[in-house]
Structures are given as C-alpha cells and as structure tokens.
Amino acid sequence: MGLGHFDNPCSALPIQVQNREFLMNADIQDYAQAMPQYREALNFLQAVLDFQAKLETKEISSQLQIKPAVARERWRAGQPLLAGEPLSISPALFQETLAGLRPLLPAGETAQTTLDRLLASGFLTAANVETLLDDLIAKSETSIQQIASATSTDPDTVAFLLHTVLSPFFKMQAAPYQVLLQTAAWRRGICPICGSEPGMARLTRDNGRRVLTCSLCLTEWAFDRLRCPFCESGEQPQLRYFTVDGDEAHRVDCCNRCHHYLKTVDERAFGGPVNLQVEDVITAHLDTLAQEQGYR
Ligand SMILES: [Zn+2]
Ligand SMILES: [Zn+2]
C-alpha cells in the first residue's frame, strides 16, 4: 500500500533530534525511587541498555550505502528504506551476543530457558539469519514462529530476545539516514527505515505534533494525529483514547477498526523531553488496561 505520494506538511518539518541518552541513568534512577513497583523492570531496562550500548561499539557498523535520491524515491512510494536490502550478521557474532544476554535475564525463568534452547538449536546459520532479518523488515513472523516451534519455546519470548539483540544492529543501519528522513514525504504508520510498527508515541512539547518511535531501530517520524498508524485508517469514530485519573501526561490511543493500541506521552503535560524506552516500562499498567479492553 503506497501512501507516500500524498504531501505531508507534518513530515516536511524537521523533527528535533534530541540526544536524550545521557539522561537515561538519571531518569531510571529517579523513577526507580518514585515508583518502586517498577524498580525491577527499570533495573532490567538499564542492564539491557548497557548491553546494547556495548554492542553498538562492536562490528555492527552500518552496512548499506543507499543514495539520497533512491531513499527519497522509496519513501515517496511508501516503502521502508531497508526493504529488499541485503543485510547480514555473522552467525558467530549473533551467537556470542545472545549468549552475552543470558546473565541479564531472570534466573531459571522462561527467558533464560528459551535462550538456552535457541543457542543449542543450531538455527543460527548464515542463511537463517538472513531470512530472519528479511522477515523482520517485511513484518513477517514466519521465522520467529519457525524458531519457536522447532525449539518448543514461546514465540513472544523468542521475539523479545531477538529484538533485544538486533535492535542495536538496526539502529546502526538507520543512523546514516536520520537527517535525510527529516525532509521525506513519509505518511505511513510503519517505520520509514525498517518497516516495524511503532512502539510508542509522543506529542511534542513545542506544538503537540505526534511523533512515533520505531520499536526496533528507534527511528522517530511524524504521523497524523487523527489516523491509526496500524491500519492507517482515518475514520475518526474508530479512534479513541483513554487516560488514568491523575496522569495527564500519558494516554493510550486505541483503534476500534484494527484493535491496536499505542501508548503516548504528551510532553506538554510531562513538562519536558521524554525518554520513551523508560516511559514504556513505567506505563505497563496502561498495557494491562488496554489489553483488558481487547486491544493488542
Ligand atoms: Zn525502524
Ligand atoms: Zn487501526
């Protein structure tokens, strides 16, 4: 579905790129103090982020050199930049990285068992890794389902582990195109770089513009406020949102057409720039509420 040929006044405006990573430790510590119910989850997030930061310094530099004209053409046609591009990671590095994640996972629980089975399964061949990367960009769950069924593990846990390990890789691939993206005519709800669905959204502090963030490569892009990013429908009666009493900064946008939901932080109510990875963790109660209402 190509929606990229419409003019988008929103995405023509540059998104302010904010380097919030230096805030991360302080954010997490503040929240862990204020919200003890999320302390364990925040500590885990910090460990994962430290782990991912180390990966970024490894040999996973950007592999592609897509020319600006080609990139713009793909975006105009509504295609994510990496679709059809040859991406690869050495199976040895992948194996080593997955193994490195093991000590961070809660002992003896599903995640660790799943990881052990993945490592022992021999699925990490060069061909399988390539298929997995292609599937992630094409939003196909075939690889994940196959790996889960071959190893008798839970697909969601497999997806979580692989996403955690692959997110820095995709972030590195996305990095060279962030400036170019600021002037791209991209109107779709999926990530303009890797094609993944948005993980969260924020309404910007300056003018309340809606900015989505990719769940895999962490790219941000502007998106209409009155359209659902998942089914790309703009039928307003199908869209609603809810908040919880006493918290005006967080809301959950829901679509009654495709039954997806997206957590959103309003930076105007929040009072400053947010770190959406941290916000995602400390709003887990909103996921529960949305899922109880039948959204996914
Ligand atoms: Zn992405
Ligand atoms: Zn929808």
Summarize the structure in short.
The protein has helices spanning 24-34, 39-56, 68-76, 91-101, 110-121, 126-137, 142-150, 155-174, 178-181, 267-270, 276-281, 284-292, and strands at 198-203, 210-214, 220-222, 239-244, 247-255, 261-266.
What average pLDDT do the residues reach? 86
Q: If strands are numbered along the chain, what order do they take across the biggest sheet? A: 3-2-1-6-5-4
Q: Unreliable segments (pLDDT under 50, ≥5 consecutive)?
A: 1-23
Approximate strand percentage: 5-15%
Helical segment tally? 12
Ions, cofactors and other ligands present here are:
zinc ion
What's the total count of β strands?
A: 6
Global geometry: globular
Can you write the helix and strand succession as a string?
HHHHHHHHHEEEEEEHHH
Category from helices, strands and their pairing: alpha+beta
Helical percentage: 40-55%
Alpha carbon gap, first and last residue: 22 Å
| Sheet of most strands | 6 strands, mixed
* Rg, nearest Å: 19 Å
